[in-house]
Design a protein that fits this description.
single chain, alpha/beta, Rossmann fold, seven-stranded mixed β-sheet
Length: 188
C-alpha cells in the first residue's frame, strides 16, 4: 500500500508484546528531543499509555506517567536537564481551538498526543505516528459475540510507525537530525 503524500512508513511490526512495546517506548524516549511530536492511535487497551510511560522512562522524566484523560495534558519535567514530556490525551477534544487553549509548549517539549490523528497538523508540520492495533488471539476467536473487546489489554498488537511531513512528497528524504530519522535508526 503506497504512502499518502507527505507520509512515509517507517515500520510495520506484528506480534508486539507489552514488553517489546515498553522497550520500543524507552528507545524512542532516548532519542526524543524538544520539538519532537509523537502521535499515538489505537483502541482502548491497545497500549498507548504503556508506550508513553516507557517513553517517559527513556526521557528520564519525573513520574508517574499516567493517562491525562480528565486533565487533557500533563507536563513531566526532566530529571536530567533534558526536554520535559508533554502528554496529551485528545480523546475528548472536538475542535482545534480546544487544543490551542491548552497552550502547549511544542518547541520546548517532547510531546506525545494520544488519540491525536486529527490534531497533529494543527501543532506541527512534521510528526511521527504510531498506530496500535490489538491482534486477535485464540481466546478472542472463541469469545462470546457480546464480549467486550476492550475489557483487557491485548496480549499482542500490530504496530505501524509512520513519519508525516506537511511540506514533503511521499518519498521525502529525512535529514539525520529529524525525529523520524532517529526513530527509523532504532528500528534498523
Amino acid at each position: 500500500m503506497p504512502d499518502r503524500p507527505g507520509s512515509r512508513s517507517l515500520a510495520r511490526l506484528s506480534g508486539v508484546t507489552q514488553e517489546r512495546l515498553a522497550e520500543l517506548g524507552r528507545g524512542i524516549g532516548q532519542v526524543m528531543r524538544a520539538g519532537d511530536v509523537l502521535v499515538l492511535n489505537g483502541p482502548l487497551g491497545a497500549g498507548k499509555t504503556t508506550l508513553t510511560r516507557s517513553l517517559g522512562e527513556g526521557l528520564e522524566v519525573r513520574g508517574p506517567v499516567t493517562s491525562p484523560t480528565f486533565v487533557l495534558a500533563r507536563t513531566h519535567p526532566s530529571l536530567v536537564g533534558g526536554a520535559p514530556l508533554v502528554h496529551v490525551d485528545a480523546y475528548r477534544l472536538t475542535e482545534g481551538i480546544e487544543l490551542d487553549d491548552l497552550d502547549l509548549d511544542i518547541e520546548g517539549s517532547a510531546t506525545v498526543i494520544e488519540w491525536g490523528r486529527d490534531w497533529a497538523q494543527l501543532l506541527t508540520d512534521q510528526w511521527v505516528q504510531i498506530d496500535l492495533q490489538p491482534e486477535p488471539t485464540l481466546a478472542d476467536v472463541d469469545a462470546a459475540p457480546d464480549a467486550d473487546p476492550d475489557a483487557a489489554p491485548a496480549e499482542t498488537r500490530r504496530v505501524t510507525i509512520t513519519a508525516h511531513r506537511l511540506d514533503a512528497a511521499p518519498d521525502h528524504a529525512l535529514p539525520t537530525d529529524d525525529f523520524a530519522a532517529r526513530v527509523e535508526s532504532l528500528l534498523s
